[in-house]
Fold this sequence. Notes:
By secondary structure, the chain is of the alpha/beta class. It has helices at residues 3-7, 22-37, 42-55, 111-125, 128-135, 140-150; strands at residues 8-17, 59-61, 64-65, 68-70, 78-88, 98-106.
Amino acid sequence: xxxxxxxxxxxxxxxxxQETGKxxxxxxxxxSLGGVHAIADVQAVVNDVMEREKLASTCVGLGCAVPHAHxxxxxxxxxxxxxxxxxVDMDAPDGEPVSLVFLIAGSKNGAGLHLRLxxxxxxxxxxxxxxxxxxxxxxxxxxxxxVCRRDD
Length: 152
């Protein structure tokens, strides 16, 4: 598919983020997207992601979460990612705090792509070696390169 690396920039990868709650983590990720992609209404995107979070947990287990939403404020699908230190309680079904997050935010008409990216990330995040590689990344470029090596 190759879609993750096309939509994830090293400038939208935040390492050792120290936020203390789910909304704060999501806000920082959306703000990173806004800084790179000039999102006109960052708050609208945060609100859309938080509304989606109310429907069901976006945690995939194993200390990972993939919050996501469609938003009228966006024209294309984009990704941001973070490692969290300390891990954050994001209401995971397995009860494990989250230390690795990928955010997918996209336009209302990008549902197919959105689902393919979500599915690909969920599969990748079930690989223990991959998760540890991302958590140990020293620089955003290292994190990005690890993702791109597996984004085929």
